[in-house]
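Re-run with default settings, no changes from the original entry. Doing this only to confirm the output is reproducible before filing.
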Amino acid sequence: MTRILLVNPNTTQAVTDVVLAEARRTAGPGVELEAVTSEFGASIVSTASEEVVAAHAMLELLAAHHAGFDAAIAAISFDSGVFAARTLLPLPVVGITEAALHTACLIGRRYGLVVLGTSSLPLYEDLVDRIGLRARLGAIEAVEVASRSQYLDRALMDRAILEAVERLAARGGIDVAVICGAAVAGVAHRLATRAPLPLLDGVAPALAQAEALARLKPRAPTPPQRLASDAPPRGIGAALGLLLHNPR
């Protein structure tokens, strides 16, 4: 049995439910899934300040719930807190966008991004740079999102995303489209036969990579050297404080 934890660092349970449903659709045999949702932070993350709070929520949730799991998936398209979590936890932590981008690069030479909300464009550009795949990025198309209800309207978002993929295809030179957004998990499967490009969204690639890492059981990287301190962190959850004071 492989146990994988899905972590949503925003406060919208509906997003967690969508992610969990898509993970269950694609999970291999013998995979047990559990999902958790943050109790603090933004309902939908779309700005740099909200993303910083989401990274904190991600670390709190992972610290509190990771015991007994073989891998964890960060169910937010900004991969908030993922790089930090890898320095603290004894299990693989997979970001849904990082997983989708690496998978896209195995399908074609150049990928395009479809992102939800123009305000989030700088966050995705920064994430692509952190992942190290800027050179393979062909173009970005944004779907404007005016409200939380619009973001959670599956039919509306599917239509808008398909139009954005068509715009990417019209540019030429793009081999595969990656659709960013935890709330639209499963959209690549739903639109696969209608889209002019191969499609990926984050959850299915992240789950496949989490399952593979759980089987491979790679040794965790050496944590970064810390300043010596006898004083544990204060003002945060007890589980996270313990990890920060004694990583892995």
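The domain at 2-96+206-245 is CATH 3.40.50.12500 (Rossmann fold). The two ends are 23 Å apart (CA to CA).
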